[in-house]
Amino acid sequence: MTPDITPITMPKFGLAMTEGKIAGWLVEPGTQVTAGEELVDIETSKITNTFESPVAGLLRRHVAANGEMLPVGALIGIVADAAVADADIDAFITRFQADFAAASDQPDGAEAADEPVMMQVGAHSLRVHDRGAGDGTPLVLIHGFGGDLKNWMLNHAALAHGRRVIAFDLPGHGGSSKDVGPGTLAFFADVTAQLLAHLDLSRVHVMGHSLGGGIALTLARTQPALVASLTLIAPAGLGPQINMDFINGFIEADRVRGVQDVLKYLVHDKALIGRRMADDVLRYKRLDGAEAALRKVAEACFPGGKQGDDLRPVLAAADMPATLIWGQADEILPVAQADGLPGSVTRHILPAIGHMPQLESATAVNEVVEAFIGHEVATA
Amino acid sequence: MSKKSFRQAINEALRQEMRRDPTVILMGEDVAGGRGGSAGTPDAWGGVLGVTKGLYEEFGETRVLDTPITEASYIGAAAGAAVTGLRPVAELMFVDFVGCCLDQIMNQAAKFRYMFGGKARTPLVIRAMYGAGFNAAAQHSQALYPLFTHIPGLKVVIPSSPYEAKGLLISAIRDDDPVIFLENKVMYDVEEEVPDEPYAIPFGEANLTREGDDVTIVAFGRMVGMANEAADRLAKKGIGCTVIDPRTTSPLDSETILDCVADTGRLVIVDESSPRCNMATDIAALVAEEAFDTLRAPIRRVVPPHTPVPFATVLETLYMPSVEKIEAAVTATMNHRVTEKV
Amino acid sequence: MQIARETLLRSYRAMRTIRMFEERLHVEFATGEIPGFVHLYCGEEASAVGVCANLTDNDTIASTHRGHGHCIAKGVEVAGMMAEIYGRSTGVCRGKGGSMHIADLACGMLGANGIVGGGPPLICGAALSHKTLRDGGVAVAFYGDGASNEGTTLESLNLASVWQLPAVFVVEDNGYGEATAASFACAGTQKDRAAGFGMPYIECDGSDYFAVHEAAGEAIAHARAGKGPVMLHVHLQRWYGHFEGDAMTYRAPNEVAEAKRDHDCLKLFRERVTQAGLFEDSVLDEVDAAVTDEIEAAVLQAKDDPLPQSADLLADVYVRY
């Protein structure tokens, strides 16, 4: 090191400090300082401290500006005799910075922003994942009871070609706020409509799974102009029967094993239910208010252990195209509920598949959806 | 949901529980920090490492109580307050200071319920920093969780990440038994996504942070991150590791440990506490007793030597378990060949 | 200070109950039927009763290894205590605590305590609860001259002063910590210790119920009014050994005899109230007879009560585990 040049580095105050912010220089370059003279205020996550000059000399440079956050040991200023040339100081700084960067070797982690974001929609804070772009009519994905937007993890990106595809967490679910109002299908349909208005979308394809299918149907009834088409995966509302062992078990389970056990109702191939999936469900279920929200929804939508809403008339009267996907081995809502629907509704019954075809048979589902709404776009 | 540091996650848990329940109070040395000082800044510190910063400002001196430096009296007071209607969260600063107040924890708080025939509830949380890696030397670096785990009546929590810290601390505060909540001081600036809402992670249920078929690694607190890193490196070499974070040493989720050992047949335990009568020996004994026939190789322990924690960086580094030491232990257990006895 | 007749009669009964409870234990312990060990409070009755006569169930006390007197004075049920000492499942602690851990949180009794100096920190906490919850309660730590030298006690005096807690520290000074005299073991004076923490100090003769009642009343009123903690120094004589079986070879042969002759709180109480015309001897005799019956019944019941079951071994370690 050049003996005439003294680097002033980010100090370490106390045991835990790893970085600090230049809260404010107290001495301007060109000022003669004495050892112990207050030089700069440093702010850490807990406290602001004044750093005193370790040496006497002429403060030549502020290398770090006010407001900059730097790791401990990083160069923040230079004290050097007036005789030292600026070029020498520049060279010193360059060398110091290179050595310091090599020593700390921290990867710069700027990440792409294809992530869900929180949106305030009316009284609700909703987690929304908006992917894709293009001229196609956007597609909105509505998950089922106890689910969240990750239920679409095998479909969302795959379908987001040439159009926006928007998945979101219903109130009371996933990362959204936990107030579920009356907990009814009409309530959720209304929130969905509010979200679409918030996103400035006047007409969308709607794909709903299970309870989300019931919500899609309800939206088709209350706001038909919004709904370009309906893709219903094992939807609620087409029959009274529902597996309440799943519903109640899901509400009550608070440990990985219990959750895994109830999640097995959802699929035909039980090996699909891994521990990570249960962990994910628990991350949501542990949130204060989640269990109460689920109870409220269950009470509103499945009073007395039966589905309370009969939406068959909606499907019969609907003007928009509709398609139905159902797993033959569905243990939550029996596939027989797909029977007796208007002939205009195309049905795709998938053998050896349970209540979540979009996960268990993602490729087939994506192909059906692509063909269905791709066709609609083509003819629109 | 947003990125939060370990420190912020703990602060948020305290703040949210104090808002939810007016009987939750905080006490400890400098939890506000600065009372009576000439600067007139009663919350100058917010804890020696800033974990409780801002709580005095929101909740005031009746809820955030600075104590004199007298661990025995205020930890005892926290125990006394807990059985008479409050939910105190007492900060012991460094867990090493337990030597000054072990009676209040071990003989009083831990035993009230049993001694009094089930009539007492002691909703007490004692937070303390533990762990080496900071050149804090022998009296400020210990990992004393085995000491507490040994004492019936106490629950012992060791969070391994910000998400875990928030959810486990909320559970600790809502719990009706005395809970020792240990924070690794090296982890305060570790960040990850943590929900903004309150949530409670139940005690006694282990978390699997990696899943693999070959070796089970059980690790505690900060060691979980190291075990994960070792597992990721080993995965590239074709060795699959399951990493278990037990979250709590008391209660201990022995079922998950035994299940995983049954699946992999090999066990490595990573424990940064002193090696005699620690969690590694405890779990080794459990597996030896309950799952001997499932083992395909001897159990390996990655633990420090039986010495106080040294000061100098070079010695402290030697002392501590590391990713490399974990990798070596896993590799050794993989390389073990059973020889038939003649 | 005027003490209500009813309070006086209740106090007399409490003191007599403690005396008979302890004397009966002294006899029964010698038969070998009582497990463990017991520390008797005989001779010190006026202290517990004189203090607790100023308290309600809303107030809290912490006791010591010599805790039976405090328990009875605070209102813990006598039959349950006896059953506990006999290790029966009907005991106040279901046979899990024994003599040294009798507690009844419902009547503000935080427990006898097997650790010398264990109580004062707890009382700081109880006082903090009273203060924080604004329930008007006061917390009282009973501790001996031996415990007055424990760091926990001295720390608690400081903490209570720093936090201005509604706490009273009652030093029951019977002159001996186990076998070692306070004159040997306690440096300085209790009074100076209180002064050292900026705490008011009151002392009284522990064989005089009226003196204790008045001094404790003053101390407790001070604390209850939010004026901070007080030390109450009660001078006492212990009639039995540190524990049962202690032959007290460290005490001069006449020391206890003189205490019994000149400083028997029950005798002094009776003299005072009968001479003042407050009570006829016959009224007090009736109390004595009733207490005799109560203790007899408690012993018989305790001996007859069921032992804990094996399942009790694992119960109540935690609220939930």
Describe this structure in words.
The complex is a heterotrimer of chains A (380), B (342) and C (321). Chain A contains eleven helices and 16 strands. With 380 residues, chain A is an alpha/beta fold. In chain A, the strands form three sheets. Chain A has an eight-stranded mixed sheet with strand order 9-10-12-11-13-14-15-16. In chain A, helix 5 (244-252) runs antiparallel to helix 8 (290-301). Residues 106-112 of chain A have low confidence and may be disordered. Chain B is α/β, with parallel strands linked by helices and 342 residues long. Chain B has two domains: 2-194, Thiamin diphosphate (ThDP)-binding fold, Pyr/PP domains (Rossmann fold, 3-Layer(aba) Sandwich), CATH 3.40.50; 207-335, 3-Layer(aba) Sandwich (Rossmann fold). In chain B, the strands form three sheets. Chain B has a seven-stranded mixed sheet, with helices on both faces. A five-stranded mixed sheet of chain B has the order 9-11-10-13-14, sandwiched between helices. Chain B has a two-stranded antiparallel ribbon with strand order 1-8. Chain B is globular. The termini of chain B are far apart. Chain C is of the alpha/beta class and 321 residues long. Chain C contains twelve helices and seven strands. In chain C, the strands form two sheets. In chain C, strands 1-2-3-7-6 form a five-stranded parallel sheet, with helices on both faces. The longest helix of chain C has 26 residues, at 5-30. The radius of gyration of chain C is 19 Å and the shape is globular. The relative contact order of chain C is 0.16. At the B-C interface, helix 3, helix 4 and helix 5 of B face helix 5 and helix 6 of C.
Quick overview:
In chain A, 31% of the residues lie in helices and 24% in strands.
Key features of this structure:
heterotrimer, A: 380 residues, alpha/beta, OB fold (Dihydrolipoamide Acetyltransferase, E2P), Rossmann fold, 2 domains, eight-stranded mixed sheet, four-stranded antiparallel sheet, 11 helices, B: 342 residues, seven-stranded mixed sheet, five-stranded mixed sheet, 14 strands, 18% strand, globular
SSE diagram, text form:
The complex is a heterotrimer of chains A (380), B (342) and C (321).
Chain A: E1 5-9, E2 19-25, E3 31-33, E4 38-43, E5 48-52, E6 57-62, E7 69-71, E8 75-80, H1 86-104, E9 117-121, E10 124-131, E11 136-142, H2 156-159, E12 163-168, H3 185-198, E13 204-209, H4 211-222, E14 227-233, H5 244-252, H6 256-263, H7 275-285, H8 290-301, H9 312-317, E15 322-327, E16 346-350, H10 357-360, H11 362-379
Parallel strand pairs in A: 11-12, 11-13, 13-14, 14-15, 15-16
Antiparallel strand pairs in A: 1-8, 2-4, 2-7, 3-6, 4-5, 6-8, 9-10, 10-12
Helix pairs in contact in A: 3-4, 5-6, 5-8, 6-7
Chain B: E1 2-5, H1 6-20, E2 24-28, H2 55-59, E3 64-66, H3 71-82, E4 87-94, H4 102-109, H5 112-115, E5 125-130, H6 145-149, E6 155-157, H7 162-174, E7 179-184, E8 191-194, E9 207-210, E10 215-219, H8 222-236, E11 241-245, E12 248-250, H9 254-264, E13 267-270, H10 279-290, E14 300-302, H11 313-319, H12 323-335
Parallel strand pairs in B: 2-3, 2-4, 4-5, 5-7, 6-7, 10-11, 10-13, 13-14
Antiparallel strand pairs in B: 1-8, 6-12, 9-11
Helix pairs in contact in B: 1-7, 3-4, 8-12, 9-10
Chain C: H1 5-30, H2 45-52, E1 60-62, H3 68-74, H4 78-85, H5 119-133, E2 139-144, H6 151-162, E3 167-173, E4 176-177, E5 180-181, H7 182-185, H8 190-196, E6 201-205, H9 209-224, E7 230-235, H10 253-262, H11 265-275, H12 281-304
Parallel strand pairs in C: 1-2, 2-3, 3-7, 6-7
Antiparallel strand pairs in C: 4-5
Helix pairs in contact in C: 1-2, 1-3, 1-12, 2-3, 2-9, 4-12, 5-6
